[in-house]
Queue: 2 jobs
Job 1
Amino acid sequence: MPLQTDGVKLYVGLPLDAVSTCNTVNHARAISAGLKALKLLGIDGVELPVWWGIAEKDKSGKYDWTGYLVLAEMVQKLGLKLHVSLCFHASKDAKILLPDWVSRIGESQPDVYFTDRSGQRYKDCLSLAVDDLPVLDGKTPIEAYAEFCESFKASFSPFIGSTITGISIGLGPDGELRYPSHHYRSKNNSHRGAGEFQCYNKYMLENLKQHAETHGNPLWGLSGPHDAPGYSQSPMSSGFFLEHGGSWEMPYGDFFLSWYSSQLISHGDRILSVAASTFEDTEIIVSGKVPLMHSWYKTRSHPSELTAGFYNTANRDGYEAIAAIFSRNSCKIILPGMDLSEENEPNESRSSPELLLAQIASACGKHEVQISGENSLVSVSPRGYEQIKKNLVDQNVVDLFTYQRMGAYFFSPEHFPSYTKFVRSLNQANLHSDDLVTEEEGTAVSLPGTNLRMQAA
Amino acid sequence: MSIAVIRPLFRQPHRLGGGHRPAYLNSSMARSFYLNYAYSPRPIFNDACSLSSHHFKPAKALSLRTSSIDTAVVETSESSDFVFSETFQLKRPQKVEGKITIRLESGNSDDNWRLTVGCCLPGKWILHWGVNYIGDVGSEWDQPPPDMRPPGSIPIKDYAIETPLEKSLASSEGESIYEVNIDFNTNSSIAAINFVLKDEETGSWYQHRGRDFKVPLIDYLQDDGNIVGAKKGLGTWPGPLGQISNMLLKPEAANSKEDIGELSVQKRGLQGFYEEQAVVKEILVDNSVSVSVRHCLETAKNLLYIETDLPGDVIVHWGICKDDGKTWEIPSEPYPPETSMFKDKALRTLLQRKNGGHGSLGSFILDEGSVAFVFVLKLNENTWLNCHGNDFCIPLSSFSVPPIHSGQPHSEDEEQNNESGSLLISGNASEANQEVSAYTDEIIDEIRSLVTDISSEKNRRTKSKKAQESILQEIEKLAAEAYSIFRSSIPTFTETDLLEEEALEPPVKISSGTGSGFEILCQGFNWESHKSGKWYIDLREKASKLASLGFTVLWLPPPTDSVSSEGYMPRDLYNLNSRYGNMDELKILVKELHEVGIRVLGDVVLNHRCAQYKNQNGIWNIFGGRLNWDDRAVVADDPHFQGRGNKSSGDNFHAAPNIDHSQEFVRKDIKEWLHWLREEIGYDGWRLDFVRGFWGGYVKDYIEATEPYFAVGEYWDSLSYTYGEMDHNQDAHRQRIIDWINATNGTAGAFDVTTKGILHSALERCEYWRLSDEKGKPPGVVGWWPSRAVTFIENHDTGSTQGHWRFPGGKEIQGYAYILTHPGTPSVFYDHIFSEYQSEISTLISIRNRNKIQCRSTVQIMKAERDVYAAMTDEKVVMKIGPGHYEPSNGSRNWSLVAEGRDYKIWETS
């Protein structure tokens, strides 16, 4: 019997460290109990992050899927579906690194990483500029990703199409299609800066130079924008993003931003097509994650989106091109931020998660790209649940929603009841309130005889 | 009168009675009781016919069949042969409603009275009873004088009598009344008659509000809320309900206690009364289902016919097997009317009611290819009937295919033999624990169908609600389990971006008596901790270590201004600068403990408080600071302090003025103070000092007002010794602790002093047999009310530099091996954690966590002999302590040794 929410499937993310770095299942019993609870709750499936740094940890081409296979079996036994996220990035939160052999290469050739204006490296994933360069012991990163996908597909073939119904492919920092523009943020930053452009490693600069020469403006290719603000500065504090007369609206700005964003788009296209071709003979749906860079959305220049690589401003739609590459590769887009709403964002950040979401959704609509949703905050507030519900039921934007993420907090008495309530309210979304079980009836507290049970326990 | 007030305690294996009267249930029983029965009371059938069993003959069945449904008629053929014909016995759980009557009336003279207890339900009823004599201290039972015992009475040990109820002459047609009369003389010194009712047939016990029934014969009796037939003049409450709260409002109750001592007892002008208590009994009713199969040669089909005498709607949940009988498949159409598809896995057919209303029938047409027809019967969401734990499996082939499942009766003889073990399962949600079975799918379906059921009639919806509630219970249980394990592993996430919105009230409250059930306490100080002057700062460095060791709760020293530097002589309660550090340091410590996932208990001294000023007589009994009470807040019965309050409701602590908790303003101020501690400091719960000093009902009040995550009281008094040797039986000691917990209504746990004392003797003198009580259970509080027992082996008073009652030296790890593998909530003493024992303690804690041993775990004692004690917990862990030999037998389980040390070993199933 389908859910009442017109087929919105509900998933929950497994812990980021569900499989340990030594390839065993972490807190297996907790996960097992948790999966049963979710099954009973009527959840359709779970999302499992599969890490490059764990499955191909020691040596290029040497894969170990043991822990993940155990988990897939657990999920299968419970009759849940599995969405696998192939993660080619590292996670500081979960203390998961890139593969050791990749990190070693990174130490000797730091230019494989994204680099900002001051020369700081972002070491949690490889720069998109080296996609097709044989930097990994003679292999290109794209080849390494492709082989990883092939090995995954071969090892999980018993699950594919039955238990595993979808995968998402890592596209960059935190798996998202973007530059790590926000990776460095000073601690006591009261307002959110717009991030910095990440075009300063050797390969990016070479590419920029070449592009400028082709474009007939060799001087524009010598560096990135000189008047862009730093991480902790307000975007309006220097010339590039100014609301009126900012460089972004000048021919140079257009030149730079077109190049910067096109690099991201071709990178996304490359990886999506690798994944799509790997899994084209299966029933698996391939997805990729696009971030919701919602701060400063209500300015004309959209600085946060620009530094992250989305050339989306008051004058230009930056998401049509993104939707187009997903469409071309028959991939789904995963959008986080379903729980965010403008009223909970600080005023000074001029943010609007809802408007941005609507814009991306409309671009996807035009290109017939389907969307899966996720929440962004670890702790979704009652208001956040309302917002998710709005997106799932009223707006009908998504056909699958993954709640992030299982763990101690998820099952804690502070959180789990509200999640349960959320899921149940989704299932009952169309009921008149008179028909719902009221709280009083739902809890046994008011029943006489409770005392005995308390004593008895 | 209320049905839910009295509940049968199903199949309670042990005796209830006097000094041995456990005021609790076995934990696992309670759990299943809760899930199976209490939560969703089933509709009560009063179908007299269903009490008798019908055996259907296939021929009769066939002749009736034609009247059933159209499709069947078409397929019928005279040339068909029986392939199979069988009648299966069923046992259907059914609830019957009745009442227990209690009548007190005067007999032939003013002094002779009669108590009559009756019950109108069929059963083998036994009255299990005892009396209190005037002047008795405590709530233990005594045996009544011989002339009071009705004929047929059997003494039970030295504290109770069991008297069978006899069928009363007043029984009318169709309704039997069972009664017992107790005649007594009011000139005897009996203060009260206590009883519980037992049904020998089912082994169920019937109590009154979870306690004994109590009929008081004199006025003064302290009212614990279980008195029946309360004299109206005593108060205005309606019937027996609501008396605990009433107690709280009546401080003079403490006064009246005084009268007992002086024996100036006023014989109450005894008044007769008659009361009825509703009672629900679950009985098994015999029913049967007949299945016959014919093979129709013309149509090459099998015709299967089911008939049953089960009342109400009966749904056949069915499918066919084409292979080994394990895989259910959906046959091809046509299906009988009223058939629906269940999750592509099975079909559900509602049987047609028979004409006349008794029973249902249905027929099924099946293709030849199938090997067997498999089914179970569904009566309602919670009641399924199957065949000896298996699906019914009916062979369809015309060759004599033996029944696939072994449990299936083959012949009439075997059927007889099997009858007692005849099938019954009710929807036991815990089965979902084993695997997600058809049942799980079922309840998931219920959740979803709830959505679509709206248009159907109301009672259907009510059923769905109930099913849904039991699912939610199960979900919560699983979530709690997942939570406790996730939480016990080292956190790798920092939760930022927490929005400051009001958290929703969780539907299942964490009980302050148990926390999550998986708590492991650490006593975070010793008798010297005040000396550094910066204990709060010192502890901060240890926070992450304590968390990584697996502790979930930390007990901090008493925080207030105090006359003694250790903090147990509090003075200004709102001044939190102490020898352990100042208030800011305390706040930071609590915050940091919270960050590593540890909850914090404040040590609150509520029994006594030191004064700051003298009264006009030069007596120190005027208090200072924000709570500037005067001598009205001090109990009246300690001459040292000249209090003007009421007499103490407990024992006195003579070194400081004892607080009079019966005063409304005192309680209000204390609640406010506790609130302030919760909010200002962030304490999650309480360790309550010297709770012997005042009535547990006040503690209940404080706990309910401050809603702590966890609370534990120190009720420490001496064990029983005879000629300097500890008695084996410490039941009286643990009963006193249980009584206190009971007085708090289970809102607080208590330190299991009994267990500590018995461990002392057992380990020191090599008398490990002491670790099993007469009933083969743990001899401490943990054996009687495990979830409320906070087990420990040492604290700042017993050990540390005071050493009032030190645990036998060198045997501490044996003590921890015991408490950390047993139910109850274990508490580990600071001195032991930061000692050479740390790694062993750490191992023991991780074994506890790994195996999810919790305060309600079940323990089975395997051996309790002179030099060795061994026990198995939750069938997952086996431990032994003592120098003697013990090895678990590797029968069905494979035990592997996971820890060992001096005189202890622990095994896990692998």
Job 2
Amino acid sequence: MPGKLKAKIVAGRHLPVMDRASDLTDAFVEVKFGNTTFKTDVYPKSLNPQWNSEWFKFEVDDEDLQDEPLQITVLDHDTYSANDAIGKVYIDIDPLLCSEAATVISGWFPIYDTIHGIRGEINVLVKVDLFNDLNRFRQSSCGVKFFCTTSIPRCYRAIMVHGFVEELVVNEDPEYQWIDRIRTPRASNEARQRLISLMSGELQRKIGLKVLEMGGNAVVGYLQCFDLEGESGLVVRAIGTACTLEKLSNPQPPNAAAQHTTANSSPSKDLKEPVFGEECPPNPLSSGPSTPLRAPGFSFSPSKSYSRQSSSSDTDISLTPKTDTRHEAPRATFFLCPSSPLLLLPSDMAPPLPSSSSATLLTPCPLGPEGEPASLPSLEALSELAMLRKSVSFSEDLLLAASGMGSGGSGGKDAGPLKTLLRQQTQTALEQREFPFFTLTSFPPGFLLHVGGVVSARSVKLLDRIHNPDEPETRDAWWEELRQEIKSHAKALGCHAVIGYSESTSICEEVCILSAAGTAAVLSCRLLQDGCLDLVTEHRLSRQPALFPSGSDRVEFDLGSSGSLGRDVSKALLPVCQSARLDYSRIGLDWNQLAASLEAQVASGSQRTAERTGERCEDLAPPGCGFCHIPYDELNMPFPAQLSYCYCCRRAKVPDVLFTTIDLPTDANITGKGCLIQARLCRLKKKGQGEGNATCISSLLPFMEYELHTQLLNKLKLRAMNALFGLRIQISVGENMLVGLASATGVYLSALPSPGGIQIAGKTPGDLSYEQHMSNMQRKINDTINKNRELYHVNPPEAVEELIGSPIPEIRQRSRLFRSHSESSDELSELDLSHGKKDAFVLEIDDTDAVEDIHSLLTDAPTPPGFFSCNTEVMPGINNWTSGLQMFTSVRVFRLSNANLTNQGLNKIFNELCENLLKSLYFKLRSMVPCCLCHLNFAVAVPEDELIQVAVTAVAMSFHRDQIQDSNKSGEDRAPMKVITENEEQLQFPLELSADTTSPQGHNTAKNSGPSDGSTGGLGGRAPSVDYSSFADRCSSWIEQLRVKAHTIRRGSIKTTSSTDRASPLPEGRSRSLRSTRSFPGSSSVTVVKMTPLSFIPGAKITKYLGIINMFFIRETTSLREEGGVSGFLHSFIAEVFAMVRAHVAALGGNAVVSYSMKECVFMENPNKNQAQCLINVSGDAVIFTRETDLEVSSYTQPQTNANTQSNNETNEDTPA
Amino acid sequence: MSVELDVFVGNNTIMDEDVYQLWLDGHAVSDAVRLRMESGALRDCVVSVEVVQSDTMDQFRTFQMCEKLLQSPAKLANQLLFQIPPHKQAMMIERYYQFDNAFAREVLGKKLSKGMKKDLDDISSKTGIGIKSCRRQFDNFKRVFKVVEELKGPLVDNVRHHFLLSDSLAKDYAAIVFFANSRFETGKRKLQYLSFQDFAFCAGQLISYWTIGAVGYSVMEDMDVDLEKEFLHNLKDLKVLINDKDMLDQHKSLVCAQLRGKIKVFNEMEANFKNLSRALVNIAAKLTHTKDVRDLFIDLVEKFIEPCRSDRWSVGDLRLFLTHYTSSAHMLETFRFEPIWDRYMGVIKSCILKMYHD
């Protein structure tokens, strides 16, 4: 299908002087697309030429449109010699191919030269006329939207999440072709830039095709990487999550996906009604047979066949039947889902959307808290009923749900034929999804049911030349292998999905470490649907019930999946420590297994019955803790772990530590704040070649992982926290060392048990001075823990245990044994010995190394006052951001002068390097205090023998200090991760807000008086006073909402702190808006473009996504000293990259880049030759955002009275602000 | 172990005004680090020298990269490399073009040529201003001069527009350009007591009243870097005031009548009137020669200010005298050059008053 690309060259400015004689330039421009080139006239003797050219028109295939960049070259005309190139601009026209994104590219672009950097700017206009594509065998995938953001983009809602997409293209690296010997560095760099641009265009197109085949229209969490394999070639690979997104027509209504706050409060008012009423009347709000509501199929479509090489049309054909089924017999199945919760739940838990049919279903089942045996048959009967009625074709979610229920409830194996059928179906369904992976790190509320833990796999490969670029099977097979392993790890954890999934490589010479990591999880298909349905028209009437996934469903699934999946999988359990498998090609390591083996525990079988009953009367899984509940079967745990009852709901088991690669779910219950936790490690290795080298590396890997894990765990304990989010482990290989860096954000999950202290124990008792030394150290450790408790406001509710008097083991009696790492190779085999009761978390000091380790543990400098840091999207526990925002990149290269370093020495140096870097950042950004460094992303590399390179990209965001104290006072942050954006969005919907009061916590407490009161009970006591104070404020109309809220709560007489959380940011919002206007008085002629690695901009609303920014630059110099040495060179290059990103965003009409990341920063120098070269790859999403202030105003004025609120609420949705 | 490379780049360029000043003052990184550590501004945060060193290096590098843009400030606003909020841009420009009065005083009236550069070392050691800073200031003078020299329209406005400077700084630059262009003598020993601000004030007066732009010709037509030739030529006519004996006497008696009892130095004034009047008128009459224009200030000091000072005139007395000296001329029946006289005396009066101090 053809398209017409039009480009116009308007003007240039600040051009460099090209003619020394006149101090001027005779510039003209070449515009090239594909093989067609146009030229402008020469604009003589000017540094600010005005070409104002005609429209250059290119008639091209849309395949080319996707692959090729528009190439603009500015030259200096020279009559006598060859024209000198001034520089180039590559414009990716992909955003123009998507109807929803930009329509025109227009603006000033920096003219970039790989040798000289930016040399002036050029003003260009680009448009595309696309013709409709009717060809079904097309190779292009125009219109598929790409997002780097790893959550559902803010102004979209997900209709369907299809699953994993991946693609990889391979080519020869121009740098290593013979021709490179005879061409100039500039020509070589440009060839490389162009090739990579082409390759990533092709990659994107191919992924787009896969998405189209799956029926999706977007890729979320798109992660594209380059592997510069040197001699053996150049690999560009990408993974992502295919989705069907729908743009929210009105930017105002809360995006169900992004709007986590509303989601917190799942049980809506009408849901609560039945709780207090005795019976369960059919929900009056739901209108008639609401089947169509459910109907839009939110199913995971099978993705297996898309896994590779979509370009071939064979796959196409093989696919069609599957897709067809999905389309033809789509949503009839849905009855199962809504009905299922009913089945297992006490009658007071009416489902949010009782359709007429489900209501009828309800009647026959004599449900109640009698227990599963009763409920199970009825479930099956019912599902049968439903299926019969609707002649179901199984969509996967249904299957999942059904199977989950079936097997979960089945105490005995007396399931009927239907059940067998269901199980079979499930299995096939699960298997159909070859890789149930999701690159997303945060999910629509209710989507994430359980988190198993981190699963990761690494594999060491020897690179060989890729002979046929068109068939990169080897590279493909490598990744395939790795993914399979990940999948099996996830299975072992009783999980059917891997979320927060990412892949990376580290290459040194011919050795390549491939790494893949994610978080094993159980997802709810149905809840995703719920979350998405909020805007379906009918739902307006029954808005609350539809909007909020009811917790009951969640529990239901919880029960089901943990039962069935866990059990099924346990049969095929992998060896406890996979790292034992040390063949050079593959190293698999399951972090959880490691975690478990480090933490000895005794699973008490006697608790089983207790758990059962707990599960049975479990009507609502509080969203704040549900995800912590173990997905695996307690009796057949894949690894030894210490379980205890959830400290929030007391109804399900939770592990004592939880590691994940995802962002903290927004509705998670946490205590205090989080902080960045890093484990750093260097290991020397012999220089080697070929297989020997690879073997050597792969034998080192498990030890490194083990030690990183140990460090993480120790540091976590030292901070009195119990969970890690956003865990990212990087192991980089150099010629003579391996460097490992694990970063994560530690938090205290209220649902998990409080971490015990750390006790150190010496091996040689008797020596007095030694003892003294030990006790000294012990005191230091205790002090640190206490200090950290204070610093992060981690005050675990100690009172809880007394209140409850439950069979939960005392925290302090928890048994743990911890052996500090020593180099002994029998370490791994010893892991299993750690079963057994000991009295504390013991660090055994058996040699000087261990002493060093503990020292290094304590040397982590605390963050300076006013600073917080995390590597997740936002800091848990902080929710009152200002608009102050500073994204930065910092790079450091250290030279290890002493070649005879020991591992310990090396570790120390590396540790210092990272600490100093952080210190520098804190110092640099001190003017932003109070502030939090978010999304701290460290990248380590070993570019040369004795060099270690650390690159950090993060954003510093300032927040209002006074509010911290507020939240401290209120003790427990109910929904701490709420970002101001969301709060304000929410205020558009006062009624929802009022409904919030019945948020899960309050709900639970109300209902489950007795054992499960726990922490929430204590909280309820404190809350009213807080509530009062906010009443006293009476500053704006949100008071009205509070009043509504107060009204609704009266019955339960319980008030959660969430209301204060929600209400308070508003006045702040005002002052913030003032501040923001103050900070940028006047406007410069250049659009201010914000950049952030986060998916949102605090205090602002993203109104439009303009397309993906994915840029690759090379910069080289032959006059390193003159450019200010390596630092000067890299400094200006990074600044130039920022400038080019900003210029492209501005040209698309945007004013911000979100989800920005620097994927690659390869720096090479040769100081002797006065040369250096650097490659940088950056990506992000170009967006338009608007300050929330305008919206705020409208939200203040709107709901004046209670009576009006509802209608206002309704109209509000329709009228954009 | 050594840090090979250390870079920090923010999307918004981060800069510390104190560090910027240190850079402008021409300190080396090591000096700047020491000064920062000593200054006490960092007392609140516990930082090591390395951290301050790294930060200072980084900012110095940023400033260095910005320097090219600062040299043509208009570019700073529409360049794409650094994202700097407008108010910060303004601060950067203003500070970059700020100069030390002591330095400007040394350079004032000299030709801003390359040869001058050699003298910078002397100036640096004499004034205690860092040599780098001296170079920057000198280059700024030269750059502004070069750009503004050929431009039409009001000098101050030109400076302000082309270099985006504040009013007061633009005026100072106008003075420097004006002095450099007319090459006024300012270096003589007798003029040493005058500060840059004294001269800048005088320059402002000259620019405002004695140039072509001053009399309201079309702004586009000419510039006001040069004094108006015609006016200077006409000044010759004022000679009548001293050449015509009657007029001189009459003038004297008019002034004396006005001032009797009002000034302390009446007797001295009465005795000296003719000399003083002659001095002022002669200065006016000589201004047709470029050489004498250059000597305007030295003449004022030697011929007028010094005699008055030796008679211990107070500033108040001087002001009264000059006021009445000027206005009395209007009462002379045969004196026909009032406009020129006023234009001349207005400037001379304010210049003298400004220059009349120790």
